[in-house]
Amino acid sequence: MRPPFTYSLTFAAAVTSACMLVACGKPPGGPPPAPGMPVVGVVTVQPQHISITTELPGRTVPFLIADVRPQVGGIVKSRKFREGSDVRAGAVLYQIDSATYQATYENNLAALAKAQASLGTTRLKAERYKELVAIKAVSQQDYDDAAASLQQGEADVAAAKANLETSRINLAYATIDAPISGRIGKSTVTPGALVTASQATALATIQQLDPIYVDVTQSSAAMLQLKQAMARGELQKSGANSARVQLMLEDGSTYPLEGKLEFSDVTVDQNTGAITLRAVFPNPNADLLPGMYVRAVLQEGVKEQALMVPQQAVSRDGAGKPMAYVVDAQNKLQRRALETERAIGDQWLVRSGLKAGDKLVVDGQQRAAQGVEVKIVPWNPKSGTGTEIAKAAHAEPAGAAN
To answer: So where are the chain's domains?
Structure first.
């Protein structure tokens, strides 16, 4: 028979071990398995009619832009516009000192009058000699000289007219007009500055802002995928809607006016592999300024039988490929490999792997496995199914109560 203190030590050791296990929170053998059948939230996959859109980055570009440069040299006498204002085509912007050009014009005008007067005398002489040579009153050589003088006089008049027109153009260039209508920027010169013809520095720049262009880029691969989808009949052109474009501004707001797609470039950028698309937007209040970063939402087409599923229903396998679980007619889970096309909002557009009528598991995938029998409850996209799953998991099985 053991001494009493031996039993006391054995009991104390047992109590100490139990306390240590409880303190660690890990009872021997691990946590007990959850009783009952797994419960999952499902949604029935249904085809939908959706518009396929693409969001692309871009920059705003003026509809028209013109650098104002002098075409004659001289001293700027005055500036006729206010910087940052709107100007109309033909409005006077600068006045260059035109005294020398005015003098040249008047000199050429006098030269023309002199040439015309000389031509009149030469013409009369040539006409008289023509009659006299017919009756042998003058020699043929005298008539030929008179005819040649007439032609020279006519050439002198033509040259004088050309010189006069050149001087008139230069005199007109002394007044610098706006080549286009639009908003003019800052002036690089002030009255008293010396300018030269066709100088490298522009006097000012005019930009037409209403309407305004938006240039965006799209990868050539995406363009090919779009064309192939339309060729296979997966996408249909949405008529006039296919050219409509919405604009997202830098601050995240949506531009209130809608634009339309003008054209796509015919050349792929070799450095980026992208194609430039150009859209035009009305801009009556000049809210869009050249050089702004924007995001354009283009409507590419319409998909008639699109399968859209919640993103939380799709997970990734070990290889990183998308997959999901569906419940078959025997309430057993079946694993499906998916091919997704793109994300639209909080849903995936599925290209293959699902069909209309499939019961897709959206919630409760923690215990999901191939062939496991489950209990299903409807999934609510607004409130979720956490409460319904909890209730179903703790519900008393039928026939357990007597």
So the answer is: 39-49+306-394, 52-63+209-304, 70-96+174-201, 98-173
How distant, in Å, are the alpha carbons of 25, 335, 396 from that of 31?
Answer: 10, 27, 22
Q: How many CB atoms lie within 10 A of CB 60?
A: 19
Q: What percent of the chain has pLDDT over 70?
A: 80
Residue 383's pLDDT band (boundaries 50, 70, 90)? low
Buried b or exposed e, range 182-201, using 16+ CB within 10 angstroms = bbbeebebeeeeebeeeeee
Q: Which residue has the higher pLDDT, 269 or 148?
A: 148
Q: Which is it for strands 259-264 and 194-195: parallel, antiparallel or unpaired?
A: unpaired
User: Would strands 86-87 and 175-177 be described as parallel, antiparallel, or unpaired?
Assistant: unpaired
CB atoms within 10 A of CB 371: 10
Q: What pLDDT score does 387 carry?
A: 47
Q: What angle do CA 325, 328, 334 make, to 5 degrees?
A: 35
Strand pairing class (194-195; 182-184): unpaired
Percent composition of the chain: helix, strand, coil (DSSP 3-state, to 5): 30, 35, 35
* CA pair distance 39, 397, nearest whole angstrom: 13
Identify the three-state secondary structure at position 319: coil
Query: Which is more confident, 280 or 368?
Result: 280
Highest mean pLDDT among 197-211, 292-306, 352-366: 197-211
- The residue length of the chain stands at 402
CATH architecture of the domain with range 39-49+306-394: Beta Barrel (2.40)
Place of tokens 């054209």: 263
* pLDDT top residue among 303 and 390: 303
CATH superfamily label, 98-173: Helix hairpin bin (1.10.287.470)
Q: Domain 52-63+209-304 is of which CATH architecture?
A: Beta Barrel (2.40)
| pLDDT at 258 exceeding the cut of 50 | yes
Would you say 90 and 335 are in contact if contact means Cβ atoms under 8 Å apart?
Answer: no
What's the predicted TM-score (pTM) here?
Answer: 0.62
